[in-house]
C-alpha cells in the first residue's frame, strides 16, 4: 500500500492514470504524446505505477499496452474511504468503473477487457484450477470440459446434468502453466466478426501469481458491461477459492 500512495502522490502519475481512465490500453508512444513527456522520463513513472499495481500491461506484437488496474484503488476504498462522505466515495467508484474501456483498431481487435489480480499460490495451482472441471465447478459454477490440446474444442457446461453448454470455443494457444487462449461464443450465437477471445496469462510475482485475463473482440459496449461483472466475480471467487478453500456467495447470474 505504501507504493500505491507514493505513486498517487505525484501529479504526473495521477495525470497518466487520468489519461488511461479516459482511453485505456495505450502504448508508450501514445501516452508520451498525451502527457507530452520524453519516453525515458515517462517510462520511469510507468515503472512506479506498475510496481504499485495501478497499471498492468499486455503485449500485442512488439507493442506493450498499458491499462489502469482498479484493484489497489478498491482496496483503499474498502480500508479507509468508506468512512468518509458519499461524494468522495462516489468519485472513486466512478474512477474504478471506467478502469476497463472498449478499444479497437481497424485490422485487429485490441484488448477490450483486462483484469489483473494477485493470488497467493503457485502458477501450477492456479493453472490447475483454471481447467480442472471440479475446480471450475466450485468457483465458476460450470464444468470447463476439454482435452486441452491446441485446436481442441472446449465447453463451459452447466452443473445440472442437462448437458447444456453456455459457452463453447476452441483452444487457440496453451503453454502450461503460463498462457491459455480460448475462443469464446454462445452455442447458437451469430457473431459477424467472429468469436471473442479470452487469454489467461500467469506470471510468478514473489510468493504470488500475477493473473491477467483479457477478453477481446466484444460486440459492443453493452457486451463489455455484461462480461465485466461476470469476470470480476469469477476472478475474485477463483482467488478466494485458491487461498482459503472457500467460495463467495452464489452470484445472481448463476443458471
TrEMBL record:
Q: Which SUPFAM superfamilies match?
A: Bet v1-like (SSF55961), Winged helix' DNA-binding domain (SSF46785)
Checking Pfam families in the record gives: AHSA1, HTH_20
Q: Which CDD domains match?
A: HTH_ARSR (cd00090), SRPBCC_CalC_Aha1-like_GntR-HTH (cd08893)
Q: Which domain of life is it from?
A: Bacteria
The segment(s) forming the HTH arsR-type domain are 1-88
What InterPro entries does the record point to? ArsR-like_HTH, ASHA1/2-like_C, HTH_ArsR_DNA-bd_dom, START-like_dom_sf, WH-like_DNA-bd_sf, WH_DNA-bd_sf
Q: Which family does it belong to?
A: Belongs to the AHA1 family.
What this protein is called in its record is ArsR/SmtB family transcription factor
User: What species was this sequence derived from?
Assistant: Streptomyces nondiastaticus
Amino acid at each position: 500500500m505504501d507504493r500505491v500512495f507514493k505513486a498517487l502522490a505525484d501529479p504526473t502519475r495521477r495525470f497518466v492514470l487520468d489519461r488511461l481512465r479516459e482511453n485505456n490500453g495505450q502504448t508508450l508512444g501514445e501516452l508520451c504524446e498525451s502527457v507530452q513527456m520524453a519516453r525515458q522520463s515517462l517510462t520511469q513513472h510507468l515503472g512506479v505505477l506498475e510496481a504499485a499495481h495501478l497499471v498492468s500491461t499486455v503485449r500485442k506484437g512488439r507493442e506493450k499496452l498499458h491499462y489502469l488496474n482498479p484493484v489497489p484503488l478498491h482496496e483503499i476504498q474498502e480500508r479507509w474511504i468508506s468512512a468518509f462522505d458519499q461524494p468522495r466515495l462516489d468519485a472513486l467508484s466512478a474512477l474504478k468503473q471506467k478502469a476497463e474501456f472498449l478499444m479497437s483498431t481497424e485490422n485487429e481487435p485490441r484488448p477490450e477487457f483486462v483484469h489483473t489480480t494477485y493470488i497467493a499460490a503457485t502458477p501450477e495451482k492456479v493453472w490447475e484450477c483454471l481447467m480442472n472441471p471440479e475446480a471450475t465447478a466450485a468457483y465458476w459454477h460450470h464444468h470447463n470440459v476439454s482435452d486441452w490440446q491446441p485446436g481442441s474444442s472446449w465447453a463451459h457446461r452447466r452443473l445440472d446434468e442437462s448437458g447444456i453448454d453456455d459457452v463453447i470455443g476452441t483452444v487457440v494457444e496453451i503453454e502450461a502453466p503460463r498462457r491459455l487462449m480460448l475462443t469464446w461464443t454462445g452455442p447458437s450465437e451469430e457473431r459477424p466478426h467472429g468469436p471473442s477471445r479470452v487469454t489467461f496469462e500467469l506470471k510468478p510475482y514473489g510468493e504470488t501469481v500475477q493473473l491477467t485475463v483479457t477478453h477481446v473482440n466484444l460486440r459492443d459496449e453493452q457486451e463489455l458491461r455484461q462480461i465485466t461483472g461476470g469476470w470480476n466475480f469469477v476472478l475474485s471467487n477463483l482467488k478466494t477459492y485458491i487461498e482459503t478453500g472457500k467460495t463467495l456467495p452464489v452470484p445472481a447470474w448463476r443458471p
